[in-house]
Design a protein that fits this description.
mainly alpha, Lysozyme, 10 helices
Length: 257
């Protein structure tokens, strides 16, 4: 009787082990089937104390995540833009609430950094295909594929935040703005630096092509140019003046409510 019970216990243990192995195998196969995050990565480099301090301050900025519009027409344009972007993103993110939150945060962080929201959405498409928990072969993380060393250099050393929606986009937009300033507004070179492939055409061309997908001419709250006549080495989108940028520090100060 004891021998039978022993065999039964052994059989149960064997089945459990086989089940665990099957689950692990399925997870591995799913990982292989999923589209890989872009393999490029920002390169760690020494920063001057003043630059590090400015970037850290930008990351820590706690202004409220809320746009201030100059008119009802500007707000309506934003809502129309939001609805259009949500429709375009529906095939990648089926859940409406998750989708809208991502678009709203992308708009906020892009405007805050003086970038065009369509550019940021295009970069996210190329970097992670809108996968919040994407990890590249180089170790870059999240939607905008930020390297963990940035959290140590200009953040609080908590790399887990790179899987948080706003934190990831805050880092990504701040880093891209820094590279744009460093390259004196040359978007082509800045994108190459963001990807760790400065001087090569593949990555900038991919982002510029994706950028066109997310442009929306009716939204006056963006500053999109005509994608058909964009130069091969485009300059950075010009930051909007306070009268147009809902996240300008001047307008936030003037509209404390």
């Amino acid at each position: 009787m004891r021998a039978v019970r022993g065999l039964t216990a052994a059989a149960v243990a064997s089945r459990r082990l086989a089940g665990a192995l099957l689950v692990s195998l399925l997870a591995f196969l799913l990982a292989l089937a999923a589209p890989a995050a872009h393999a490029g990565a920002q390169k760690e480099e020494d920063l001057a104390d003043s630059v590090r301090g400015a970037l850290a301050a930008a990351i820590a900025d706690d202004r409220p995540l809320r746009p201030v519009f100059a008119s009802g027409g500007e707000r309506l344009a934003y809502l129309k833009w939001l609805g259009e972007m949500s429709a375009r993103l529906a095939s990648r993110i089926p859940e409406p609430q998750v989708r809208v939150e991502l678009i709203e945060v992308a708009y906020y962080e892009a405007k805050r950094a003086g970038l065009e929201p369509a550019l940021v959405l295009g970069l996210i498409q190329v970097e992670s295909n809108f996968r919040k928990y994407a990890i590249s072969s180089a170790g870059a993380r999240g939607l905008m594929q930020v390297m963990p060393f940035w959290v140590r250099t200009i953040g609080d050393s908590d790399a887990r935040k790179l899987f948080h929606l706003q934190s990831n986009l805050r880092y990504g937009c701040t880093i891209l703005r820094y590279y744009l300033d460093r390259e004196q507004g040359d978007l082509y070179l800045a994108l190459g630096r963001y990807n760790g492939s400065r001087g090569r055409a593949e990555y900038p061309n991919a982002v510029l092509a994706a950028w066109k997908r997310w442009q929306y001419s009716e939204a006056t709250v963006t500053v999109a140019g005509d994608p058909e006549i964009a130069p091969s080495r485009p300059r950075a989108p010009v930051a909007e003046p306070p009268a147009r940028n809902p996240f300008s520090s001047q307008r936030v100060a003037a509209n404390p409510s």
